[in-house]
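Input.
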Amino acid sequence: MGAFMFDIGVNLTSSQFSRDHDEVVARARAAGVHGMLLTGTNLPESQQAQRMASRYSGCWSTAGVHPHDGSSWTPAVAEAIYTLAREPQVVAIGECGLDFNRNFSTPQEQEAAFSAQLALAAELSMPVFLHCRDAHDRFLALLKPWLEKIPGAVLHCFTGSRSEVQECLDLGLFIGITGWVCDERRGLELRELLPAIPAERLLLETDAPYLLPRDLKPRPASRRNEPAYLPHILASVASWRGEETQWLEAQTDANVRTLFGIDVNGV
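Output.
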């Protein structure tokens, strides 16, 4: 593999990483993962992600409110996210979107927070880092009016159907693929549609500490996912797509530059 891999989805602010941030980053770098996007899911964690991104070279962050936390969206939070998003480490608005699976916030609260963050991204001319679960039609209905006003978007941790991925691709979205695709029980449908995603729209992520690849050997005793395992996801995805791993690595690096404006070669 080449000298650079980029993980677009690392929840380094998770309590599961609270005791060993330095070690997690060091292991990622040792594995060849020299770029990471640290995900913000509410205001405090977005602020923490930005501080971490300023501490660790090769790290950037998002600023936003996850649909689970949609009820926390207020004018004060909006102003704070706006201010935070202007920091140089912050390269996208999000994680934002809709999640009607568990409705930790009501659908109305989620939709209000999502729409407000799309407006914020348009105002700041920033890409968006998107989340959608069990809400595809409503998600696209809210997103579509903004797509000409924002520079780009990635649907992170895609686990939907062939028709859903095609709709997203038709709208110009990038697609984030995680270790979910390595799950021989739940990931087979996703694995089968991998070739339908154009290489220039594909991004790779661990979503660590979640979604540890089920076929990872040896399995860590902690059962915790880490960005150091991104090479396993990269190699698996390349194999299922019928592509050389080094080629796909270079292509996804280029996609990171295109979407987030990050100079991965400058790390």
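The CA atoms of residues 164 and 170 lie 10 Å apart.
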